[in-house]
Amino acid sequence: MTDATINTVTISKADIPSGGMKSYKQEDDSIILITRDDDEFRAFDGKCPHAGADLGNGLRCGNRVVCPWHHATFDSRDGTLLEPIATKGLTQYELTHDGDNLTVDTSAQVTGQVTGQVENDKLTDTHTIIVGGGGAGFMTADQLRQGGYGGKITLISKEDKAPYNRPLLSKAFLAGKMDEDKLLLGGVDWADNNNIELRLNQTVSEVLPNEATVVIEDNDGNSERQTADFLVVATGAKPNLPPITGAEIDGVYTLRSMSDAKLIKAASHDQRVVIIGTGFIGMETASALAQAGTTASITVIGQGSRVMGNIVSETVSNALIKLHEEKGINFVFDATVNEITKVDRQMDKDGDNNNQAFSNVGGVTLANGEHIDADIVILGTGVSPRTEILSEVNDPDGVQVDAHLQLRDGVYALGDIAKASNQMGRMRIEHWRVALQHGIVTAAAILNDDSVDSLEARIPFFWTMQYGKSLRYSGHAETPDHNILLGTPDTHDYIEYYFDDEGEDTRASAASTLGRDKELVAFSELLRRGHTPTRAQLNAGFDIIEQAHALSR
């Protein structure tokens, strides 16, 4: 490959096999991705729009180009977004044929690829109301506009901020590695650029599904009713407050919103921090605060004997514990917190409270009588769906919807509150990528676009970032204890497959990895197609990448 000019690159056709792809990194750090089907070549921006991963390090399966990091998926023929976590497709460049070579002009985008060229001429006389400013609500609004929706869109959020990337609160914001404005989904001017009415600091107190009507209240207590042609309810989840004495006192925090993260960030300086819970939120919070380096100490308390025990095996859990301990985290396992104790502290005479006494955390007392000193406590004890406003149509574990997230004609429930059918069956899943999938599916349903896969053709995926190490998980398993582990978790180089039982012919239903991203992409594609390997196949040395390629040819 040689540079012809600043904007053009010459590439040998022989470098790329038919049905394959290859990326070319440029001196300016840009990446060009070439896909080939027989004599048909296409050129794209080779950086994933989500986090900049080199898509050439991912996997191409049929017409699907899958990002190695977070499994965003794009159509190899035109760059269309097929799966989040990216929120837009790939920019496609013009190319010309010159015998055995191709010349790519990165200054010339293929017609229709330029942002803003969508003609918003569909359903122009309709109104869509979206309740909730999280990932599902944002993605619904964004995909409606990208799909040509020309009606009015109103997005109602109880928060004071436009939609933002919530998972990065515990992955990057708390660690001091990402500023608040970088978390905004779609950028600072997303709502204005897409003609979306943002109604912030407002709460929907009631949803009347049969009437497609909502009751909206603002912070001053004023209320109004609005009726929509399409109503999307994506109210998310709220942190669980465990039945621990003292859980309500000052100095006890949960992490769900930007305001929560800001409070924790400010309150944790030079303080002894106790985190209750060893799920991925608890572990990410410990990692982020440790990386920030501003606390006096961090102790994590778990009821079980391992971290993320419902997700990964004991061996992988031990590797994660070791990683945290090397960064100074203290663990207390097999422990139940009975009480968060309270102490009266006196503000300094020069403080803002003019020597006025106030209450705060003094520590936690365990069921065995042990007391652990603490200045703040963070609860990582799970979440529950915010379904109160839809209580008449609920079951206790979410809102029953169809494969297009529809509850009633024109009324949709999605994100953390939705109990919907995907490739793995009917379930409620509290993961960011699933929420974005819900937004894509809902927007397509509103637009009556049957070219977009329903939820039943998709699989769940999530990742957790701890100390710069990204553990990724695809699929769903009831327990991690029926497993096959390949590699060495201690060196952060493994892939682990999970099964519903110990049968030799049982197919894997989930997998997790550190460091073997391409194998997990291959597993995900096989899972999506219903062809994951059996226990016997994996024990016999099954080549999962080759099989993913073979099934997609």
Question: Mind sketching the topology for me?
Answer:
Blueprint: E1 2-3, E2 8-12, E3 21-25, E4 31-37, E5 40-45, E6 59-61, E7 64-66, E8 73-75, E9 81-83, E10 92-98, E11 101-109, E12 127-131, H1 135-146, E13 152-156, H2 168-173, H3 190-193, E14 196-199, E15 202-208, E16 213-218, E17 223-227, E18 230-233, E19 237-239, E20 252-254, H4 258-267, E21 272-276, H5 280-292, E22 297-301, H6 314-326, E23 330-332, E24 337-346, E25 357-366, E26 371-373, E27 376-379, E28 383-385, E29 394-395, E30 398-400, E31 406-408, E32 411-413, E33 418-422, E34 425-427, H7 432-446, E35 461-466, E36 469-475, E37 483-488, E38 493-498, E39 510-514, H8 517-528, H9 535-539, H10 544-552
Parallel strand pairs: 12-13, 12-18, 13-14, 18-32, 20-27, 21-22, 21-27, 22-23, 30-33
Antiparallel strand pairs: 1-2, 2-11, 3-4, 4-5, 5-10, 6-7, 7-8, 8-9, 10-11, 15-16, 16-17, 19-28, 24-25, 25-26, 29-30, 31-32, 33-34, 35-36, 36-39, 37-38, 38-39
